[in-house]
Design goal:
Blueprint: H1 2-20, H2 22-37, E1 42-46, H3 52-57, E2 67-70, H4 87-94, H5 99-104, E3 114-118, H6 125-136, E4 140-145, H7 147-150, H8 163-166, E5 169-172, E6 180-182, E7 191-193, H9 195-216, H10 235-251
C-alpha cells in the first residue's frame, strides 16, 4: 500500500536524522541556548511550506519563550492557489533578491540573537538575503534543509553561495531533493512529500535539546502549557506568565 510506503519513507528520514545529525543538533542547540539565556531571541524564518516548522515552535503547547517567528504573509499564504496572493506570485517573490533585506529592516536585532532558517534546497534569494543580513548584524545563522541532497545545485543569489554555504551550522533534514517520495502508476511525478515531517522532527529534537541545556544551567523556562486539562487550575496563570515574558522580550526590556 502506498500509505505504508510513505510511512516507511518518513521513518527512514527520521532514522537518518537520528544517525547523522545529533552532533549538529547539539551544536545548534547550544548556540540557541546562549541567545535565550541572554534574554534574547532565536529568530525563525522560512518561505512556503518551510513556514510550517516555524509555526510549530511558538506559540504552541510544549513550546517556550525564546523563539520569535518571522513569517512574511506573501511568502506563505497561498491557499487561494490562484488569484490574489497565489502560487505564481509566491514563486516570484521567494526568488526576488533584495526582498529579504527589506524584511530584515522591519525588526530589531542584537548580535546575541540567533537566526534559524528553514529551506529545502537552500538556493532561493529571500532566505539567502535574510541569512546574509543576520550575519552582518553579528548573529549566528543555523540552517535546516536537504543539504547533502542539494550539494552542487546552483544558487540563485548574486553572492554565489547557497544558504547552506552561508550558514554557521547546518542541520540536514535528510530528505530527498524531489521531496515527494512515493511513485505512482502511470505518472511521472511522485506523491507523498516528507520534508515537513523532517522539519518538525528537527524542530523538536533541537528545541528539547535547548530545553535540556538551559534546565541544566538552572535557567527557568517560560513554557506554554496546555490549558485544556481538567483539574489544572493554574494553567491559564502559567500561560499568562509566559506571554508576559514574551512581551517583555519584544519590548527589549
Amino acid at each position: 500500500m502506498l500509505s505504508q510506503q510513505w510511512l516507511s519513507n518518513v521513518r527512514n528520514v527520521m532514522d537518518r536524522i537520528e544517525r547523522t545529525q545529533l552532533d549538529n543538533i547539539r551544536s545548534a542547540a547550544s548556540v540557541m541556548a546562549d541567545s535565550i539565556q541572554a534574554g534574547r531571541w532565536v529568530h525563525t524564518f522560512g518561505c512556503g511550506h518551510a513556514t510550517l516548522p516555524i509555526e510549530e515552535m511558538y506559540p504552541r503547547i510544549g513550546g517556550f519563550v525564546g523563539f520569535h517567528p518571522i513569517i512574511e504573509l506573501p511568502l506563505t499564504f497561498f491557499t487561494r492557489v490562484t488569484g490574489e496572493m497565489g502560487i505564481h506570485q509566491f514563486l516570484f517573490l521567494e526568488r526576488a533578491e533584495g526582498y529579504g533585506v527589506e524584511i530584515m529592516k522591519a525588526y530589531t536585532f542584537d548580535r546575541r540573537d540567533t537566526m534559524w532558517i528553514f529551506s529545502h534546497t537552500g538556493i532561493n534569494n529571500v532566505n539567502i538575503d535574510v541569512a546574509l543580513e543576520a550575519k552582518k548584524r553579528g548573529m549566528k545563522v543555523i540552517v535546516s534543509g536537504s543539504a547533502q541532497e542539494s550539494a552542487g545545485k546552483k544558487t540563485r543569489h548574486s553572492c554565489g553561495k547557497t544558504l547552506f554555504e552561508v550558514a554557521d551550522i547546518v542541520i540536514d533534514s535528510c530528505t530527498p531533493l524531489q521531496d515527494a517520495s512515493v511513485s505512482l502508476e502511470n505518472h511521472r511525478d511522485k506523491v507523498g512529500p516528507v520534508s515537513t515531517m523532517a522539519f518538525v522532527t528537527v524542530v523538536w529534537m533541537t528545541i528539547t535539546t535547548v530545553a535540556e541545556i538551559l534546565a541544566g544551567r538552572g535557567v527557568k523556562l517560560s513554557i506554554h502549557p496546555s490549558h485544556n486539562i481538567p483539574g489544572d487550575t493554574t494553567a491559564r496563570e502559567r500561560l499568562n506568565e509566559a506571554l508576559v515574558e514574551y512581551k517583555r522580550r519584544v519590548a527589549g526590556v
